[in-house]
Structures are given as C-alpha cells and as structure tokens.
C-alpha cells in the first residue's frame, strides 16, 4: 500500500475517534481524545511486540517512518491550519494587543531558547553527560514557540476573554515563524558547519519573516480581488483554497516564511474580504467550510503525534532527561513571559490570570515534532546516555508535546473559567449569561 492509502485509513480512524468521543462525553476536547487514544494504541503495539504476541508494532513503525512528518506538516497541511486559524482573528482586538504579541513572539521565544539551552546543558554536565551546548540550544529553539495548531485547537473552543485569548492565539500564530528562523540558524551551526554571524542571522530573519509578511499581503490582496470579482458563492469559497495551496507552496519556493504568509493573508481575508468581497451566502458558509477542514486535518495530525512514539529509541539514562524536559520547559516559559510582563503591566491593566494562562496555555504539538524529526540521525552519539542526539531530542520533544496536550490542554479550562469570572466581577455583572467579554 502507498502513503495515500495509509493516510486515508489513519484519517478515518481519527474521525471515528472524534465521533465516539463526542457521543461518550462532548466535554472532552477532540485533540486530547485523539492523542490519548493513539498513544495508548502505540504503547499496546509496542508491548505486544515485546511479548512476541503480534508483529503489528513493526508494521506500524514502518508506516510512520514512510510518512515524512516534516514534509507532511511543515511543507503541507501547515498552510491550511494556519490560514483557517487566522480567518477567525479579529483585527481590532489584534491591534489592541499588538505590543504584547510582538514582545512575546520576539523576546519570549528568543529568551526561552537561551534559558532552556543553558539550563539543560548545566543539568547534563551535573550528571556527567557531555551533551554539547549547541544541541541543547537546538532543543530550546524547537520547543520554545507555542504551536498555533495545538493552541487554536484547544484554547479557541474554551471561549476565553477576548483580550487574553488574543494574546495566546496571536502569539502562537506569529512566533512559529520566529522560532523557525532561530531553529534554522542553530541547526546550520550544529550540522552545517557554519559559524553564526550577526549579519547572516539578520539576513535570514529579514528574508524569512519580513519576506513572509510582505508575500502574505500580496497573496491576500490577490485573493481579495479574485473573490470580489465574482458573485458565485461556491466559487468564492473555492478561491480561498488558492492561499494555503499554491500560495503556501510558492512561499516555500521563494524561501520566505509560508507560515507568516498564511497568517497575514488569513487576517486580511477574514477582516476585509469577509465583509466587502463575499456575498451574504458565502459569509455564512466561510467559517463552516474552514472549520470543517481545520477539524479534519487536526484529527489526522494528532493521531500521527500519538503514533510518533514508535519512532523513539531511548535508554534508561535518557529517560531521566526526557522526564526533566517537562519542568525545564515550563520554568523557562514562565521566566520568558514573566520578565516582559513586569514591564507591560505598569502601562496597562491585565486579567489577573494572564500570566498563568500564558504559561500553562503554551501548548506544543506537531510543529515541534516535525522540527525534531528533521534532525539527522547518527551525527552525534552521547556515550553516557547511550543514545543518539536525535533520539534524545525527539524523546524530550515528544514528552513535552504529550504533557502539554494531555495535561495542560485538559486542565487549562479551569484557568479560563477563573479568568472569565474575573472579567465578570470587574464589570459588575451578576449572571454569567449577561457577561460581556473584556
């Protein structure tokens, strides 16, 4: 069977899991249910193979290895998922939070990379495991950005206060481009033999980030004029597919950030074309169409995340670092957000749960795994850990991703409810049904 056949069966399984979950308990987020189910299934396959009951674990491993996770996500469905998420971003609220989103996307991502890299390197030195600093920074670069796919799939459904929700969603949509630039730079130093220079880093940033934003504006304007030129409702919706398909591929071919291009084009179409270019019928169906695509692709992505455990080979020494990666990332995320927040709160009043939600709501997902899977195997073997550096980074990434989706994603609702209650108390409303968002 070819790759397409495997993806069809995995997609069907993901949809059936969503259906069963909704029937059993519609309060459980489908991303959490799919990830948990596929993880449990993967562990069962591994256990059955270890006990020589079945050989399905080997077959499943070969299937997952044949699916190029990096190409499938970073060069494939990422465009659809980011564009769908950006369509729901309200520009007036985004403008109100522009400084917060910019600072968190730039400073916090860079600071978290350094904090994680140096702290992880210090811990490995303490245990006597000599993991080079560059590999620790590489892990910090790929795990620091919030994953917009995971964030939008969970936070969006909880209906958080608008300003707080926009801070989390806006940061997650923009900081993946920054994170990819940092990861690409560190990757080139670690495996390409290149020496980092300020000029080289600046040039890479300008080409990827600024180029992606400008390309997204041009792409959004092109789609806007095409949509405005027709009154056919079906054709108007179909024209939006140009952006995450040919537009996303063209951005990658031009070596600019396709992720940022999708976000910019989505915001433009969602806030301008929605009201001036679409017919009334298309305005009604636009969100439904893209919510359906978003739900389907998320279902497929998260079942692949759960199955990715089959690709990891760890030693018992490596398990120590893998377990420590979770608190390390949480601590460094908190510090990277806390530092700028101390300055910003002097000039603007924030929800009292903002810092908690920004820390606990920083979910990681498929983007981090795709970057980890792009690391070449067999380049550096860590003697004390008896592990290849790729397996170590992939194991730590998988642990953080799994914890963020299953634990943070499942418990963030309580913080969101507390944040909403704080808005209600501040505005003086008695009934929750009468409360308006901040």
CATH class reads: Mainly Alpha
By DSSP (H or I, 4+ residues per run), the number of helices equals 18
Instruction: Output mean pLDDT.
Output: 79
Strand content of the residues, in percent?
under 5%
Give the domain tally: 1
CATH topology: Na+/H+ antiporter like fold
Biggest sheet, open or closed, and with what strands and sense?
A: 2 strands, antiparallel
Overall structural class, as computed from helix and strand content, comes to mainly alpha
- Gyration radius (Cα, Å) is 22 Å
Task: Point out poorly predicted stretches.
Answer: 429-438
Percent range for helical residues? over 70%
Which H/E pattern describes the elements?
Answer: HHHHHHHHHHHHHHHHHEEH
State the end-to-end distance. 52 Å
Shape assignment? globular
Transmembrane segments: 7-24, 30-51, 72-89, 101-121, 133-154, 174-192, 204-227, 247-272, 293-313, 319-341, 353-373, 393-412
Protein name: Na+/H+ antiporter
Main location: membrane
Keywords: Antiport, Cell membrane, Ion transport, Membrane, Sodium, Sodium transport, Transmembrane, Transmembrane helix, Transport
Question: What does this entry show, briefly?
Answer:
By secondary structure, the chain is mainly alpha-helical.
């Amino acid at each position: 069977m070819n790759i397409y056949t495997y993806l069809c069966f995995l997609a069907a399984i993901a949809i059936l899991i969503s259906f069963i979950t909704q029937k059993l308990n519609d309060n459980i987020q489908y991303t959490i249910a799919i990830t948990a189910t596929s993880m449990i299934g993967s562990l069962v396959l591994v256990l059955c193979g270890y006990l020589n009951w079945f050989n399905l674990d080997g077959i499943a491993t070969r299937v997952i290895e044949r699916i190029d996770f990096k190409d499938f996500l970073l060069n494939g469905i990422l465009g659809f998922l980011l564009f769908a998420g950006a369509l729901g971003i309200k520009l007036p609220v985004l403008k109100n939070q522009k400084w917060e989103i910019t600072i968190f996307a730039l400073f916090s991502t860079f600071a978290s990379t350094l904090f994680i890299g140096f702290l992880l390197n210090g811990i490995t030195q303490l245990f006597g495991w000599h993991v080079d600093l560059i590999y620790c920074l590489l892990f910090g670069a790929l795990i620091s950005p919030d994953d917009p796919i995971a964030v939008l799939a969970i936070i969006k459904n909880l209906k958080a206060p608008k300003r707080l929700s926009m801070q989390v969603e806006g940061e997650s949509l923009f900081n993946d481009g920054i994170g990819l630039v940092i990861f690409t730079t560190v990757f080139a130093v670690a495996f390409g033999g290149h020496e980092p220079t300020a000029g080289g880093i600046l040039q890479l940033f300008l080409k990827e980030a600024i180029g992606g934003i400008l390309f997204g504006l041009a792409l959004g304007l092109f789609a806007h004029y095409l949509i405005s030129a027709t009154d056919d409702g079906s054709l108007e919706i179909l024209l939006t597919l140009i952006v995450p398909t040919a537009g996303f591929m063209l951005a990658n071919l031009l070596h600019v950030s396709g992720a940022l291009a999708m976000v910019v084009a989505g915001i433009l179409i969602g806030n301008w074309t929605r009201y001036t270019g679409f017919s009334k019928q298309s305005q009604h169906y636009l969100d439904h169409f893209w919510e359906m695509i978003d739900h389907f692709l998320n279902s497929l992505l998260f079942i692949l995340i759960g199955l990715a455990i089959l690709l990891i080979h760890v030693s018992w020494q490596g398990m120590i670092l893998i377990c420590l990666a979770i608190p390390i990332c949480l601590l460094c995320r908190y510090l990277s957000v806390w530092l700028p927040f101390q300055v910003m709160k002097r000039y603007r009043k924030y929800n009292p749960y903002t810092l908690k939600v920004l820390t606990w709501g920083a979910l990681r997902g498929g983007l981090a795994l795709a970057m980890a899977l792009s690391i070449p195997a067999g380049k550096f073997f860590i003697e004390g850990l008896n592990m290849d550096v790729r397996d170590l980074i992939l194991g730590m990434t998988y642990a953080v991703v799994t914890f963020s989706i299953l634990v943070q994603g499942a418990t963030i609702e309580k913080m969101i409810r507390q944040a909403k209650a704080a808005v209600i108390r501040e505005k003086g409303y008695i009934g929750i049904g009468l409360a308006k968002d901040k």
